[in-house]
Design brief:
The protein has four helices and eight strands. The chain is α+β, with helices and mostly antiparallel strands. The strands form two sheets. It has a five-stranded mixed β-sheet, sandwiched between helices. Strands 6-8-7 form a three-stranded antiparallel β-sheet.
């Protein structure tokens, strides 16, 4: 596949009409092996679009109660678009907006499979710093980092 012109990338709320595109790319084992799927529907979830077609999902989950000052960011992209800078651009857009949209937010964090070097690199490019490896924290039999 040829390299994507990043100026064609946009973020918008995930819509029910995205479901067919989502199922095309989101059902692959290679895409889902390093992530935890949650039900879509909150305004914090966005579909990353190429010419208004969903190719990626990105979400920010705001903690509650005493932990309300923290949020988690997560994302997944269609395998055909790996390595083209799309996720880096999308995460950068979200990071640039989340602290103004979530009043009182002090910390945005991500948990990444220790073997998912591409995702770790995305986070480094947008300013995240690795804080450690959670050796006892597993989900779907993967150890997580950051």
């Amino acid at each position: 596949m040829s390299k994507v012109d990043l100026s064609r990338i946009s973020l918008r709320p995930f819509k029910i009409s995205d479901v067919d595109d989502f199922l095309l790319w989101g059902g692959g084992d290679e895409v889902t092996q390093n992530i935890r799927w949650k039900t879509c529907g909150s305004r914090e979830e966005a579909s990353i679009c190429l010419d208004d077609r969903s190719i990626e999902l990105i979400s920010v989950y705001r903690w509650s109660g005493d932990e309300r000052c923290k949020s988690d960011i997560g994302y997944a992209i269609a395998k055909n678009y790996w390595g083209q800078g799309i996720t880096t651009k999308a995460v950068n857009i979200v990071v640039s907006q989340v602290f103004t949209e979530f009043h009182g937010l002090l910390r945005l964090q991500a948990f990444v499979d220790v073997k998912n070097f591409a995702s770790q690199r995305v986070l480094e490019k947008v300013g995240f710093h690795k804080e450690g490896v959670l050796r006892s924290y597993t989900y779907s039999s993967v150890s997580l980092s950051f």
